[in-house]
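Box 3.1. Reading complex inputs
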Amino acid sequence: MGFGAPGSIGLFLLKRLGGGLLAIVGVSILVFALLHMVPGDPVDHLAGGEATPDQRAKIEKCMGLDKPKLEQFGAFLGHVVDGSLGRQCSVGAGDKRTVAARILEVFPHTIWLAICGMLVAIVLALPLGMIAAIRRGTWIDTLATTTSLSMVALPQMLFAPLLLFIFFIGLGWFPGPTETGPKAMVLPALAVGTHLMAMLARMTRSSLVEVLGEDYVRTARAKGLPEGRVLVRHALRNALLPVITIIGLQFGSLLSGAVIIENVFARPGLGTTLLDAIKERNYPVVQGTVLVVAGIYVIVNILVDIAYGLADPRIRRG
Amino acid sequence: MSRLRRLNLSPSAWVGLVMLAVFVFAGVFGPLIAPYDVGPTSLDLPNRFRGPSAEHWFGTDSKGADTLSQLLWGARSALELSFIVVAISSSIGLFIGTLAGWFRGAVEEVIMRVVDILMAFPGILLNIAIVAIVAKPGIGVMIFALSVNGWVGYARVARGQVLALRERDYVTAAVALGASNRRVMLQHLLPNLMAPALVQMTFGFGSVILIEASLSFLGLGPQVDYTWGAMLDQARTFMWKDDWFQIYALVPGLAIMWVVLGANLLGDGLRDRLDPRQRGRA
């Protein structure tokens, strides 16, 4: 992951982008193969039971199912290049939007949830992890560590419905499922954020504990710097590097849809779209969503690597 | 047992070990001691949505089935699935990772590209996609889906370890003495992979349970109503209806938490002992 000499940043980027592109194509082929290997006619699902042969033929043609497999994959790649990701097919006046349009419509919901959830997580996790590390071995540490360990293990399938039960059904403070809008964001963001918080707090603690044992921290203390300055300028800066990596990677997976949370709160998003499309056996939408998800994931991972390289002089200067 | 003692595990790792042992016990013997049947035969409509009582310690579900019995059968199903998935994933992963680390060159390049491809997609979404696309829910499909990307972690661990091991004197010596690739890998590399692999397996155990429950929760699991994920799904559907039904969510939810917490505690402890380089990392 090192950049080596400063001039090789471009080369590093190029290599990562190439690898990422290869991975995205690989995932697309994998999903394409799976979709087409599986028995069962997608036309049945999309056309419904009482479709006439004529309508069936229309859908088949629209989806390109009458063509050879290789040509179908070629057509998919073509739709990737023209940015539409293909068309949705249905009988009569169904959903005529392109796949890209459908994804673009839900994507803002996913982005907002990711940002809000991440904010909740960071705001809670950093203080918790730092206090635990500074007060290492005291009851505060034990409490903080136990809390985050349990929260990591707490399944979202329990936590999210419980949040709804308490704050929507019981207290009526926040709106329930299917609602959108700022107030409806609170519970999903809490559900996403609490889980992440636990991971980040653990990471912050262990990283800070490690850094506090380093020679340069001892040196800083030995030359008489005030403890607060040692902590902020010397320890925290370095301790946060791995935490930032985790934040980035987790953000990447949040951007690809927090599928359980979206499901519980019946929120539109990439996760629900993929799930719905799979249930409808809507090939173009499944393939388009998979491509977008993989793309986001790969790009975020590369950005995290770059950020890490920029933040850590040891890596930057190699 | 004596080997276990020599590991000198931390108290929290012991707690994790005991928690996992309880789960394994429940999974093996649970269905035998379950007070009631589960599944279609347990239909008892007059007794649906009951709160805790002497007959039904944790109440009953929307079909009148006993919650405790479902919990115990769910433990069996979770144990079976996670055991099989971890066994398959780790065997494949260790094998492939060892190949990559030992042969280097084109073999390594191809394997690591495949690893990259599988890592280029959020794990659970890939599992969902596979299970849902195959559209024949069942334990077999689930095992397949979880193993498709499950081996990747083990392969990376094995490759990293082999890359370090191949420089060791005893490996060089074995090669110099004319040992075959097969012999070097089986006799010298594999035994030294077991420690980090065990750590990975312990964590893997917890995460497989979690993913399995998520899939069942989304209605993509085996079509039975007693897996922990399916119980949670039922719980959120009827949570609003009845004063006592929240307990039906808590029971499987806390059971999942129990197993995952146990696996994480034990995994942390094992990592501290078996993989000192990683000590202190979260």
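In summary: DSSP finds 14 helices and no strands in chain A.
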